[in-house]
């Protein structure tokens, strides 16, 4: 079953997405997400220039061998551009394998380990009252887990807070916008927010919070300690994780669980974090961490150390990535939570899919393969628009992590 065509599709239905579509000699197609927010064209070019020529004529059935060929064969290993490109090929090959077998991909991964994929929604607003209202909306819709982000008094623009109702979308202007950050103001404000939220919703709603890499380990330790009374399910990306051993400091001081990984692209990014049990959840994604094949390897490794999955699922990962994530989520033994931000309507039109939300759970498609596609004609109506992620500075102008 040879691959005879491989198309790299760049489209902007509401936001930019890069998709790889593979076609076999029997006419079976498979799709893979290759979107890297703010760097989309780098992955599109890597695929078109360096990967597509290697795919034509290859056996579509050889998923693992193709992964190794693209990873080891390039000599230059890892990195988000390379790993997103490999992910797109890998995901599309799993889609093809499912269609050929006549089975949804999760059946090829060992079948169901649970009835549904628990997801968390995003309650965010400038004020605490606003956040309480949004969290109540999620609870009414059946969500069992809610991520809480609020504005911080004295700061005009804070990570994760919507400008208005609708989809949260951090990438905007072609040149990055800049926001001002104060760790002192933030640390002073957040515990009071969670005190209100816990008081309002009681002990059973799972609460999460994203720090977005803005603290040092000792600052993160202080935050974790101050949030202990509110029993968070996780504190996300409390510090940048390039220095994996830095998380020992956080762990030494707090029992607030820690989730990291949305910027990881390989098992080596979390090898120490996992093997030393410095985190509780790995939030890597199918698209940025080498596809279903590599992400499953990461989660299998994590399972040995009681670390669970918590896959990133922001709207800059396409419905193709979400569809693939759900097949993994439903099948692995150590699933934790799945992030879920519904896509804009126009995005869903370009990427028809059959996964569905009900009562706080997402359910993967039961169709053969991934159960998602791209409407190429419709996609062509939405040309790429340059959009960059913002930049963050301290009050004195120093560039800080975003
Ligand atoms: O492209 C960056 C976004 O995906 C990221 O900022 C979203 O932190 C994020 C999250 O947890 O969804
Ligand atoms: Mg995050």
UniProtKB/TrEMBL annotation:
<dbReference type="InterPro" id="IPR029017">
    <property type="entry name" value="Enolase-like_N"/>
</dbReference>
<protein>
    <submittedName>
        <fullName>D-mannonate dehydratase ManD</fullName>
        <ecNumber>4.2.1.8</ecNumber>
    </submittedName>
</protein>
<dbReference type="Pfam" id="PF13378">
    <property type="entry name" value="MR_MLE_C"/>
</dbReference>
<dbReference type="InterPro" id="IPR018110">
    <property type="entry name" value="Mandel_Rmase/mucon_lact_enz_CS"/>
</dbReference>
<keyword id="KW-0456">Lyase</keyword>
<dbReference type="InterPro" id="IPR029065">
    <property type="entry name" value="Enolase_C-like"/>
</dbReference>
<dbReference type="InterPro" id="IPR013341">
    <property type="entry name" value="Mandelate_racemase_N_dom"/>
</dbReference>
<dbReference type="GO" id="GO:0008927">
    <property type="term" value="F:mannonate dehydratase activity"/>
</dbReference>
<dbReference type="InterPro" id="IPR034589">
    <property type="entry name" value="D-mannonate_dehydratase-like"/>
</dbReference>
<feature type="domain" description="Mandelate racemase/muconate lactonizing enzyme C-terminal">
    <location>
        <begin position="129"/>
        <end position="257"/>
    </location>
</feature>
<dbReference type="Pfam" id="PF02746">
    <property type="entry name" value="MR_MLE_N"/>
</dbReference>
<dbReference type="InterPro" id="IPR013342">
    <property type="entry name" value="Mandelate_racemase_C"/>
</dbReference>
<dbReference type="InterPro" id="IPR034593">
    <property type="entry name" value="DgoD-like"/>
</dbReference>
<dbReference type="InterPro" id="IPR036849">
    <property type="entry name" value="Enolase-like_C_sf"/>
</dbReference>
């Amino acid at each position: 079953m040879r691959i005879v065509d491989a198309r790299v599709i760049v489209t902007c239905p509401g936001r930019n997405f890069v998709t790889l579509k593979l076609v076999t000699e029997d006419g079976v197609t498979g799709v893979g997400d290759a979107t890297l927010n703010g760097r989309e064209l780098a992955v599109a070019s890597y695929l078109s220039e360096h990967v597509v020529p290697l795919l034509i004529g290859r056996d579509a059935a050889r998923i693992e061998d193709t992964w190794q060929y693209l990873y080891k064969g390039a000599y230059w290993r890892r990195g988000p551009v390379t790993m997103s490109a490999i992910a797109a090929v890998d995901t599309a090959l799993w889609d093809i394998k499912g269609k050929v077998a006549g089975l949804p991909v999760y059946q090829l991964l060992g079948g169901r380990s649970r009835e549904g994929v628990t997801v968390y929604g995003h309650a965010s607003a400038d004020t605490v009252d606003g956040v309480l209202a949004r969290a109540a909306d999620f609870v009414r819709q059946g969500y069992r887990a809610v991520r809480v982000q609020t504005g911080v008094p004295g700061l005009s623009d804070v990570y994760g807070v919507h400008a208005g109702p609708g989809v949260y979308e951090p990438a905007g202007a072609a040149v990055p916008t800049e926001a001002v950050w104060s760790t002192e103001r933030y640390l002073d404000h957040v515990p009071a927010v969670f005190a209100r939220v816990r008081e309002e919703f009681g002990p059973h709603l799972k609460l999460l919070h994203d720090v977005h890499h803005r603290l040092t380990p000792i600052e993160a330790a202080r935050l974790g300690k101050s949030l202990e009374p509110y029993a968070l399910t996780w504190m996300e990306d409390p510090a940048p994780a390039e220095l994996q051993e830095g998380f020992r400091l956080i762990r030494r001081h707090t029992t607030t669980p820690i989730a990291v990984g949305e910027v990881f692209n390989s098992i080596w990014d979390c090898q120490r974090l996992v093997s030393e049990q410095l985190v509780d959840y790995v939030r890597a994604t199918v698209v940025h961490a080498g596809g279903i094949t590599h992400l499953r390897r990461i989660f299998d490794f994590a399972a040995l150390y009681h670390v669970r999955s918590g896959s990133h699922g922001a709207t800059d990962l396409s419905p193709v990535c979400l569809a693939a994530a759900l097949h993994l989520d439903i099948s692995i033994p150590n699933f934790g939570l799945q992030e879920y931000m519904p896509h804009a309507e126009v995005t869903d039109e370009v990427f028809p899919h059959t996964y569905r939300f009900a009562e706080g759970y997402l359910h993967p498609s039961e169709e053969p393969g991934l159960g998602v596609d791209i409407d190429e004609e419709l996609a062509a109506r939405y040309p790429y628009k340059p959009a960059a992620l913002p930049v963050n500075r301290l009050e004195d102008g120093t560039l800080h992590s975003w």
